[in-house]
Amino acid sequence: MFDDAIVADLWRYPLSTLGGERCETLRMVKGGPVGDRTHGLFDAETGETAYPVRDPRWNRAPDIRARIRNDCPQISSDGQVWLDAESEAARDMLSLHFGRAVQVRRHGTALADGTAARPRYTMAPVHLISRQALAQLSRLLPQSNMDARRFRPNIVVDLPDAPEGIPEYNLLGQRFRIGNVTLRGVSHCGRCGFTTLAQGELPGDPDVLRTLVDRFQRNLGIYCVIETEGAIELGQRLELPQPRPIVIVGAGQAGAMAARSLREAGHRGPVQLIGDEAHPPYERPELSKTLFQSVPQTDAMTPDEAKRLNIDLSLGQRVVGVDADRCRVTLADGSNRDYARLILATGGRARNPMALSGPRVHRLRTRDDARAIALAAPRRLLILGGGWIAMEAAAAARAAGLEVTVLVRGPALAHRLLPPAVSDHLAALHRSHGVDLRLGVSAEFAVDDNAVRAKIGDSEITADMLLIAVGIAPNDDLGRHAGIACDGGICTDAAGTTSNPLIHAIGDVASQPGPAGLARIESWQNANDQACACVRAMLGQPLSARAPLRFWSDQFGKRIQIAGRPTAKARLCNGPGDGDRPFWDFGDFAIGIDRPQEIHRFGSAPRPKTARRQPPKPTGPGRFLVAGSAVTEGAVLRVDDPKLGALAVTRINGQVHAVADACPHAVASLSDGFVADGHIVCPVHFAEFDLVDGTPRNAPAGCGKLTIRAVSETGDRS
């Protein structure tokens, strides 16, 4: 994978936040490169650590360079005259440069107020980046100067034979050698607004951070730890002697798609796919849609395909533990498998909240479940539940000639998901085909060898079989065992990364960001889309905007299709139209029955989700703020107003917005950030603030609203 990989550049940064020095040799110890980030800049009066971007007064820090001579750090503003960093002359130069009293202190020593000098942040000691990663970013930003100094690496490597993407991501979870030094990749390197700052002859460039956020989840390069000390020299080879595999636990739709996508994306390292069922990966939607029908089942990956793609497919193997510290999974037979990266695609298990059991009680989640239900050949089927599985199973059973009763505890079918108009239409569809549908009921069940009985008040229903279809519980046990964040599933970002950078989760088990917070999405399309996004993020390939969610269900010869993420309380914008083939447009999502063209158009064409909201308008006499021509579309401009103070001004869809140029949760200038999706984004912690009302999202706990200023535009005056 890394033939002809060599060290192209070496850097160290004796003073945090200042520019560094290029080296021909770096001595590596457990704490990192010798002489790297040993000292910091501090406000001489307050003891505050220099923090560019978060506090714009420090933004000129990269203009000053630092080096080590005779084991002492030196600094220079021009590369010609060098001063001992802790000398009085250096203090005077720094104070003049920043416009306030500044001191240099070795980390761990005492400041003027008696507290210890601490670094701005503590990460893994070595930062590595590849020329190929910089080249990929350059292709997306051809007008930008993508110098490695923007990213402050210690090691720049050239990986000429590497796959597409950010090839150093293939070193995460791996032990590799450079010279006599052994390193291990431990995490992505998350970027902040520092990458946008001017540094010497490098101009400031906010597009760099914006692109990293939009396309690479804010990451570029990796952090490494030193496992064997030694020295690294320019031109030495990078060697990966025994690459660990990417291990995928869960051989269902999402797991199979992730394995296939790794190969399609160019990953050449070992891949293992482990499933606890004896069957090769198969598609689950047809289990309920074709229940009681003798139709061929669809495989998501055959053993022949796995062999052709060089994927190690292990079936009938259950993973029972994850040791995140050692990057190892344990199987039920006691064997262990090491991994470089781990993908958990463990899905969910069918719920049985009443703990009912017996030969006449069934759940439907696996191919074996469907086969057992069909072989039992019931004549009278009782279904508990009102979601998609319950509806599809009822429709399939009626098509097979069974008597079907459906008991729903809620007031309507899929009442937490579907608006009432849609639920009512589906209820009428089922009743018109002979389903005994009972809504808003609670039952007491009795099960014996001869029958299942459900008592509802004074009445009793007798059936040959009870199918419990009340949803699934996520199989997040391995995530909890690994110590990663779980809340109704394994918590992930949009591309499946968990709180551990080497562990990912996809499919039904993943609780991913949505409009109302983290939520699991149980759909065939999401399993595929999230698997692909996860793989691209793992390999450092640019992410594209996710397609709108789509879902379909076949019932009684009708195809129900959804585009977007439905909510039960949504207001109808248009519809339903044709009584037999209704189409409901709810603005953010649409639902149609036998209306594929309309669903396709809805999910494919750009649509205004809501009427464009307007920022507040000034009342009373106004005053000139800035020339309208200076406020360009999508750019953020800092304007100092004598009464309101510093403002961040931008233009979105032609509309001018003005907000306080201070993030509510950090001492950061929002004019150093950027705008996206109607929000202005903080360049430090990436909190997003609505430009109309200041509401935060993706913000730290306790973050308040942003102050919005009323502004209007007349001619060329704002």
Structural class: alpha+beta
Please, what is the oligomeric state? single chain
Unreliable stretches (pLDDT < 50, length at least 5) are 607-612
The biggest beta sheet, please? 8 strands, mixed
Separation of the first and last Cα atoms: 56 Å
Overall morphology: globular
> What is the residue-mean pLDDT, rounded to a whole number?
90
Order of strands across the main sheet: 2-1-11-10-14-13-12-16
Helix content: 10-25%
Properties at a glance:
single chain; about 725 residues; alpha+beta; five-stranded parallel beta sheet; 12 helices; iron-sulfur; FAD/NAD-bd_sf; FAD
In short:
The chain is of the alpha+beta class and 718 residues long. Helices cover 17% and strands 30% of the residues.
Structural description of this entry:
With 718 residues, this protein is an alpha+beta fold. A hairpin with a 2-residue loop joins strand 38 and strand 39 (558-563). Helix 4 (253-264) packs parallel to helix 11. The model is unreliable at 607-612 (pLDDT under 50). Residues 91-241 form the MOSC domain.
Annotate the secondary structure layout.
Layout: E1 6-12, E2 21-23, E3 25-29, E4 32-33, E5 39-43, E6 65-69, E7 72-76, E8 83-84, H1 88-98, E9 102-106, E10 126-130, H2 131-140, E11 155-158, E12 175-178, E13 181-190, H3 206-216, E14 219-228, E15 230-233, E16 238-239, E17 246-249, H4 253-264, E18 271-274, H5 285-289, H6 303-308, E19 311-314, E20 319-323, E21 328-331, E22 336-338, E23 341-344, E24 348-350, E25 361-363, H7 367-376, E26 380-384, H8 388-399, E27 403-408, H9 420-432, E28 436-439, E29 444-447, E30 452-456, E31 459-463, E32 465-468, E33 472-474, H10 477-482, E34 490-491, E35 503-505, E36 510-514, E37 517-520, H11 524-539, E38 550-555, E39 558-563, E40 583-585, E41 590-593, H12 596-604, E42 636-641, E43 645-652, E44 655-660, E45 674-676, E46 679-681, E47 688-690, E48 696-697, E49 708-709
Parallel strand pairs: 10-11, 17-18, 17-23, 18-19, 23-35, 25-32, 26-27, 26-32, 27-28, 34-36
Antiparallel strand pairs: 1-2, 1-11, 3-4, 3-15, 5-9, 6-7, 7-8, 10-14, 12-13, 12-16, 13-14, 20-21, 21-22, 24-33, 29-30, 30-31, 36-37, 38-39, 39-41, 40-41, 42-43, 43-44, 44-49, 45-46, 46-47, 47-48
